[in-house]
Each structure stands twice: as structure tokens, then as C-alpha cells.
Amino acid sequence: MKTPMRMLMTLGAAMLFAMIVAGPTMAEDKIISFNKATVEQLMAIESVEIPKELAENIVSYREKNGPFKRATDLLKVPGMTQDYLEELNPQEVDGDVVYDPDAPPALAPSKC
Predict the structure, then answer these.
(1) Residue 96's closest CA among 57, 52, 64, 62?
(2) 59: phi then psi, degrees, rounded to nearest 5
(3) What global pTM score does this model have?
(4) Spatial separation of the C-alpha atoms in residues 15 and 35, rounded to whole Å
């Protein structure tokens, strides 16, 4: 029979291992590519409430015109405003345009 201390140590080691293995995966799940995301994934962005119509427009525009190359390309999407763009704070990473909730603001505030 295992002692309570030994059981706690085993449990702690298992939890630590799980956090180490899952940590990078969990962080990557928060990053969403505007070039690959589905309508549902765009609408699921937690910090910005994207209306279904705008999410559909992002996907439709991308399918018709090809991938977004610059963050400001999102302004070409019908319904995308400067305010939405600033809230989404799109980042240009390795040739992709992504939403990263942990990224510092990339765009200058609107002067309107």
C-alpha cells in the first residue's frame, strides 16, 4: 500500500508532466489565423464579439481574393471597420495574419 505522501508526489509529478506537455498546445490554440479560420472559429474569439456576418465576410473575402498578406488587408473585408481592426489587433507572423490575445497592440489608435 502506498503512503499518502508518495501518492501526492506521484500525482504532483503527473500534473507537472501534463502541464509541460499541454502548455504549448494550449497557447497555440489561442492564436487564430485569419487565413485559415472558419466562421465559427472567428466568432469564438473571446475578447472581440465578431458578428456572424462579419466572420462570413472574412472567410468569403479570403476565398475570393486569396490569403491576407498584411493586417490592414482585413479593412478590405465588407463590414470591417477600423474599430474592429484595432480590437482584433491582427499580427503579421511568418507570412500569416493572426489573432493573438497576448500580443501587444500592433496598430496605431484611430485618429477619427
Answers:
(1) 62
(2) -65, -45
(3) 0.69
(4) 35
- For residue 39, the SS3 value is helix
**Please, which residues have CB within 8 angstroms of residue 63's CB and are 6 or more apart in sequence?**
none
Domain that holds residue 13: 1-30
Instruction: Report the CATH number that the domain containing residue 85 is assigned in CATH.
Output: 1.10.150.320
What is the reported pLDDT for 3? Answer: 78
Q: Please tell me what DSSP assigns to residue 46.
A: S
* 10-residue mean pLDDT series, the chain (112 residues): 70 60 47 97 92 98 98 98 95 96 75 58
Q: Are residues 50 and 16 in the same domain?
A: no
Give the chain's domain count: 2
